[in-house]
Specification:
Blueprint lengths: L1 H11 L2 H4 L4 H33 L3 H13 L2 H12 L3 H25 L3 H9 L4 H31 L12 H10 L2 H30 L9
Helix pairs in contact: 1-10, 3-6, 3-8, 4-6, 5-6, 6-8, 7-8, 8-10, 9-10
InterPro entries: ABC_transp_perm/SBD, MetI-like, MetI-like_sf
Family: Belongs to the binding-protein-dependent transport system permease family.
GO biological process, one term: transmembrane transport
Length: 223
């Protein structure tokens, strides 16, 4: 009970929200790492996944090659990059991009490769060229699955970006690292709660978008 009260008191202090190392600043840093990593990963994974799904050559090798990054612990990957590139933004972004590419790449490939063959054959019968069929049939059919891959990658990044603090950078992970170093458990718990709430908020947002865009709407009954 004392730790709950202490954590609540920690949240109530204005400097923990608006200071130079407050929640709002750390949240902005955290989102910066996540969004930039997501953008880079999407620029790599989306066109590569579309190409692999459509031409189908080398897909098994390429996808499994990228999936190797998921087997490497994020902290270990960052430490390796720190050794190679030093203490700066590069190790963090390399690790986060490597972790976010696999779900986007895999879902894009699956969505394109397993697009409804009947619709694809119908597009060909209507005289569409292969590229027209890709852009107008396969990609629209694959969008819900691609969206799910982006959603998975984003949630993983929100949780994983806390390791940026290990590289001496900012983000919400600072509350965990600094709190453990200072034996300040309320700060550790508060940082964990903020990361959790951010992940939950993003999950709810993506669920709402998914429901609005991709779930079939009920047709009202005719009287």
């Amino acid at each position: 009970m004392e730790i709950i009260t202490a954590t609540f008191s920690w949240f109530m202090l204005p400097e923990h929200w608006f200071g130079t190392a407050g929640i709002l600043i750390r949240l902005r840093e955290h989102l910066w790492y996540v969004l930039i990593s997501m953008a880079i990963a999407a620029l790599i994974a989306l066109p590569l996944g579309v190409a692999l799904g459509y031409w189908r050559k080398g897909a098994f090798i390429v996808i499994n090659l990228f999936n190797i990054g998921r087997a490497i612990p994020s902290l270990g990957l960052i430490l390796l990059c720190i050794i190679l590139f030093g203490f700066n933004d590069i190790p963090v972004f390399l690790a986060l991009v490597a972790l976010s590419i696999p779900p986007i790449l895999t879902n894009t490939w699956v969505g394109i490769y397993h697009a409804d063959r009947t619709l694809c054959d119908a597009a060909t019968a209507l005289g569409m060229t292969p590229l027209q069929s890709l852009w107008q049939v396969r990609i629209p059919l694959a969008i819900p699955l691609i969206f799910a891959g982006v959603r998975t990658a984003l949630l993983q990044l929100i949780a994983t970006a806390v390791v940026a603090a290990y590289a001496g950078l900012g983000g919400l992970g600072r509350f965990l690292i600094d709190g453990l170093g200072q034996r300040d458990m309320p700060q550790v718990i508060a940082g964990s709660l903020v990361v959790t709430l951010l992940a939950v908020a993003c999950e709810l947002l993506f669920s709402l978008i998914n429901k609005r865009l991709f779930q079939p709407q009920a047709v009202p009954a005719m009287n």
